[in-house]
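Input for the complex:
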Amino acid sequence: MDMMMKDMMSNDMMSMPGMESMDMTLMQACMDACSACEQACTVCSTQMMDCSPACMNCADMCNTMMRSMLRMQGMTPAAMMSMLDACMAMCQVCMDKCMEHADMSEVCKMCAQSCKACMDACMAMKDSMMRMG
Amino acid sequence: MDMMMKDMMSNDMMSMPGMESMDMTLMQACMDACSACEQACTVCSTQMMDCSPACMNCADMCNTMMRSMLRMQGMTPAAMMSMLDACMAMCQVCMDKCMEHADMSEVCKMCAQSCKACMDACMAMKDSMMRMG
Amino acid sequence: MDMMMKDMMSNDMMSMPGMESMDMTLMQACMDACSACEQACTVCSTQMMDCSPACMNCADMCNTMMRSMLRMQGMTPAAMMSMLDACMAMCQVCMDKCMEHADMSEVCKMCAQSCKACMDACMAMKDSMMRMG
Amino acid sequence: MDMMMKDMMSNDMMSMPGMESMDMTLMQACMDACSACEQACTVCSTQMMDCSPACMNCADMCNTMMRSMLRMQGMTPAAMMSMLDACMAMCQVCMDKCMEHADMSEVCKMCAQSCKACMDACMAMKDSMMRMG
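Predicted:
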């Protein structure tokens, strides 16, 4: 996302209760990690290994998470934390499944790494919100 | 979903640890409620009232929830409960926003009712899973 | 979708150029067929047969088609016809792939039938729009 | 998408009839433009201007287009060209709508630019495929 759009989103959030001090750098990193994870999971889901359904679930959840961060006007801090929990839970399932055959498949290995990066970014976001709260 | 597809999904779940005794009737009702809520939120999001971003978030979360229930091979009971929590949280935000102008807009009123029905169906699903566990 | 929501959508369309005489019964049937096809494709995509990537593509296209019909304020007749063409093309690919093993898999057979029904509903919608135009 | 994933996708396509000589650089650029357009449209859809439904339609179509390019195993050249047409048509509608108030809104202006970039990338992709065919 370009700098100007990020500034506008930041401005919009100034007027949302409980979101005035949201860390926009962490949020940007979280959106990027969700987007990368959606893409990796989508590719991995076509490799016809048994992680495929988990990858599809994870791709959809990551896309929903990213979009929701682009639409914070329709979120509350509590709902956001619940969504972050669900996103981390789906990334965990997908990572675990993909790690089972990371030795056999480079795609699965990369997908697992993307899931891990997404979980970390969601956790950093959630930690930051809990410190704010 | 037709009866035969439901039977097959039910059979698939027999071999998934922790999901053998999932209540397929509640799950079917939950998928239907998610689908109805996605549609109501999508219509409501075009009415240009201030609930619009919440409706879009809720539509995406409901679609992701429904799809995940159609792909239980890629879920665990723990991830499913976390997703149900997130779905209920988003429905709550959307319902609260839409109720603010339910008197002025029939669409918002219907959207709020769909959100409530979806929350109830998710809660029934989660309660049933907790009794199983 | 309930009757009242359908009436409202119909009213909204009265004020959209080129859409005043859209056949709402065909449009409702088309949305239902897209939704059913999204669900059948989502289930079929988990069966780990070689139709899986086509099913995922088809599920996403059907969902996008259905949502766009719920948001006609953001469409033009020309864009709608182009989307219908794309949806029919994806359903054709998915149906062809699933028919290759319809004998071996009841899920693939049902998925192919849903794709066919969705193509037919999209074609009926497009024919009706061309007669209007 | 990282280089290794791109190489694998390229390898996968070697075995798909009619896709052996697909230009992976153009396809990568097209996926990036779709992803950027989905994000810009999602932000723009929350600004409560009358482009909002068009932005939502465009965001969904761009996401579906991007995902389909990540799952070329489930595509044919003909279906891909039809999808590219639909994506260009939706970007055109969204761009036209957003340009109506580009003077009043920086977000709409950026969204229109993202739509234009996405149309250009889709057209480059389609041109390349027609030369191949």
